[in-house]
Each structure stands twice: as structure tokens, then as C-alpha cells.
Amino acid sequence: MGVRLPPSAFLLSDVQSDSFGVASTPAQLTVTEQPSLAGKELAIGPPLVVEVQDVMGTRVAGDNETVVNPQLQGIGSLSGGDAEGVQAEEGRVTFEDLRVDTPQLDATLQFVADDLSEDTTEPFDVVGDGVALELVSETVPLNQHQESTVNMIVDADAPMVLMIVDANELPVFFDDTTEVSASLKPESGDPDATLSGTLTVTAEEGVVAFDDLSIDLPGDDYVLEFSAPGLIGVQTQPFAIYGDQPVDDDLSEEEQYGEESGTAEGCSSSCMSMRTPGDMTWLFIALALLAIVAAGRRRSANA
Questions:
Q1: What is the DSSP string of 215-252?
Q2: This prediction's pTM
Q3: Count of Cβ atoms closer than 10 Å to residue 158 Cβ
Q4: C-alpha 85: how far from chain center
Q5: Of the residues 219, 247, 275, which one is the last residue of a structural domain?
Q6: What is the pLDDT of residues 209-260, one digit of tens each?
Q7: Domain for residue 260, yes or no?
Q8: What is the domain range of residue 232?
């Protein structure tokens, strides 16, 4: 005689196993640190970091075997201590010495490894050797009094700032040696004028700042020239230097040193006209005469 089991005997009870880890499988490469600065034949900075990740985008921390190779997507060639590839450490690959030998715009680096999906950096520029000087601001120098510091009109307290640029007009951020000289353009302003201050400045990270230039004589159409050995020079737009004259503290710099023509003694042809009490008196007389004429015409029309 068989034994009949109750239905409850067939119900499965919940069973919880001991926890265990599942090793991630490398599936793709992902660039996590992008390039920002690159000079011709200089190490790209900051160091580039590529992660070995699984299909879910998680770094495979147990991977110490994958070799990742960089490939330049652009012109020229890639060199440096890491150009032949770097082996992963805990799923992370760091490239500290990659160099590009040709200046260019929008280069990229592609990273590849066997059996893994590749990844590519964001575009970056490779800066070449300096070829020219460029004014940081396109505005003209501030029209001002003689022997005052020559500053840019955008900020009366700011120095004259130039950059050393390459053939693609990129700032040459690695130039700390070029010496740039300032001078008055011949036949500009007063021919007897002298430019004073620090006339030669050494670049710092491709930037040159002149903060104490001054001109000793008033005149129109002064032009400053900036030059350096082996570089294309640059010059300012014309500006004026005024002779000594009283300064009205109640007027703004634009009202005192504007570009409209004026007649004040010692003021250049580009100086803004500054009205005197006499000027205002003649203005009121002219307005009064116009009012009298207008009233006479109205009376004639009513008659």
C-alpha cells in the first residue's frame, strides 16, 4: 500500500544561499581623463586615464593584464614613453607621456585593446612654435595726458597685454623665454617724443604685459609697435596724448578723453570738447533767439 503525501509536502520553501561575488568581464574602454593642453613634442597634459569596464560601465578592478594602445587621429605621429601601450593596473590605464610632433587643430586619440570596444578622446589642439605677436584686446590705447601710463581703454588700470601665438593663432603657453620690445612707430605723434618705462619684457607662459609705458609729449596718432626676434610684430591703433590741462573730477574719463574733436588749449584733434560756462551762455542765447523767432511766426500766422 502506497503512502499518500499531503499537498503541503510539495510546496517549495525559500532557500537562501551564501553570498558570492561575480567577476566582471572586460568589455570596453572608456576615457575618463581628457586632454586639455598639448604643445608640439611636449607631453599631453593632464595625464590621460582610460578605464577597462564591463558592459555595465563598471571598472573591472581585477584587470591587471589588458594592454591599451593609443592611436593618433590627426596629422603627424605619436611618440613618447607610453606610445607603444600601457598595461592596466586594477582596471585603470594612465598615459603620462604621449607627444604629438605636428601642430594642428582638433586632433583626437583613440585607445584600443584586443577584444574590447575602443574609445576616443574629445578633440584637442596641438600648439606649435610662436610665429607672431597678438594684442589681447582689440581696443585702442586710452587717450590720456603726457607722461601718464599707457593703458588699454577697456580698463584704465590694466596693462598692455600681448600673446605669442602659433600659425593657428593658438597661445604658445610654453614660451617663457621670448623677449618682446615696445617702441614708438616712426613718424607717429610728435617726432621728438620719447617712450619711457620697461621697454623689453620676457614672456611668461606665452603672455607679455607692459604696465609702465608712458609718452612725454602731446600729439595725435601715436602708434606703439611691439616686436620680438623671429616673430611677426603687432602695433596698436592710433591714439592721442594730451598736453597738461586741468582735469575736472566731476567728469568721467569718456567725457574728458573721448574721441570727438575739441578746441581746448593743449588738447589734440581727437580730444572731446569740454564745455565752459561761456559755451553754455552762448547756447542759452541761441535758444532764446530761436524761441523769439518761433513766437513771431505764430503771431503772424494767427493774424
A1: ESS-EEEE-EEEE-TTSB-EEPPPEEEE-S----TTS-
A2: 0.65
A3: 15
A4: 33
A5: 247
A6: 988 888 888 888 999 999 999 999 999 988 888 776 544 555 555 555 444 3
A7: no
A8: 132-247
